[in-house]
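In this supplementary section we document a worked example of the pipeline. Step one takes a protein sequence of length 466 as its only input; no multiple sequence alignment statistics are reported here. Step two produces a three-dimensional model, which step three serialises into structure tokens for compact storage. The input and output of this example are shown verbatim.
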Amino acid sequence: MLRFTQTRRLTAAITAAAVMLTAAGSGYARAASGRHAAGSIHLIKHVIIIMQENRSFDSYFGTFPGADGIPMGDGKPTVCAPDPRTNRCVAPYVDHHDLNTGGPHQETSALADANGGKMNGFIATAERGRRGCKDPNDPRCTHRGIRRGTDVMGYHVESDIPNYWSLARNFVLQDHMFEPVISWSFPSHLALISEWSATCSDPENPMSCRSTLDKTRNRGPADPTPFGWTDLTYLLHKDGVSWAWYLDGGAGNGPGPALRHRGVPKIWNVLPGFVDLHQDRQTANIKSLRQFYIAAEAGRLPAVSWILPDGKDSEHPPNLVSRGQHYVTSIVDSVMRSPDWKSTAIFLTWDDWGGFYDNVQPPKVDAEGYGLRVPGIVISPYAKRGYVDHQVLSFDAYAKFIEDDFLRGQRLNPKTDGRPDARPDVRENMPQLGDLRKDFDFSQAPRPPMILPLSPKTTLVRPIRR
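The serialised model returned by step three reads:
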């Protein structure tokens, strides 16, 4: 078995060889071909997960018709959160600002915001947050804005984010999608690809890994702290299912796209740190977003895609909401124009709540989660039209869907997956977790594309810098 340090030295050679092995587009969905029966999940040959940043469900869809949004009476919020600075209780309010500041979003922040199920600690947490942080992705921060005070009780309406609402109205909106971990972006991205957040005393020994939500010691993909437990690409590779991890912002110069990449923050680009990725010689499957657009146009998308934004496209405060919507629309439009649209499911979500208000107490499934509620949208020619899914979901549901579609229901289960690790439970099998298949009608004729404008007219107010 190659040690992780050895695989790093060989990345360039591995990348060149793997490109030759994966370049043939005709083989991209071959693992799923022959299993695609009419009227079943196997009509989906391409799953695309678009991961954005730091928005709660109520901050984007709190007034969406039929959704479990902000409690209202006579059109006014009936809930509030105390502001210890003014001794007032502040109700959620419409905020048209394109630039938001949000609040701290560590594990301690999530617990403080939820406040034992009262869901009213958001302002106090934001006011305690560090201000003037140099790192915009520091989960301890309340970002310095152009306005005084905090904006965590503010929410956007349809006229602010019309494309997101159009997708939700015409496809499926999930109003009980929870972050898989009660913590910040880094553990959330680890859970996205592996259903677990852990640290390992010996990364070469998956049985040495233990659950943790404190991942601040990781140094990122340019100099990764190796993650020894098993991620989903291990099962995909073992079963011959094509996949790619697409990074916004363009590939940088270095020993290969897997280890150095400008644009996507290191705390979101966690996949290069997984030991099994290097052992399986799959680093060439980490690609630039430009390659995604090329594959979509050619009708050669892999079976499974994850797409990660750079900072400016991410919607992570203080980055602009409008720019993130433009970026996501560009990706969705490219798929809708693709020959692969008729067999694709797009899952759009946000990695954590970013400190913004949400009124729904997250369910507890184990020591790591769930975390606070985030938006989730399903876009597909087989998605139900105008459907609000009230099932309890987390990012674990994405892995469950992929496993059911392409892997015959195989799970990241240390007892059966062929690569034992020390994870305490199999997240995809948790009884609370819903089934994404309920968001589809596989008996319906495939729905046509719905191309949206990249820069729609909105009521967002751009910041005026002085």
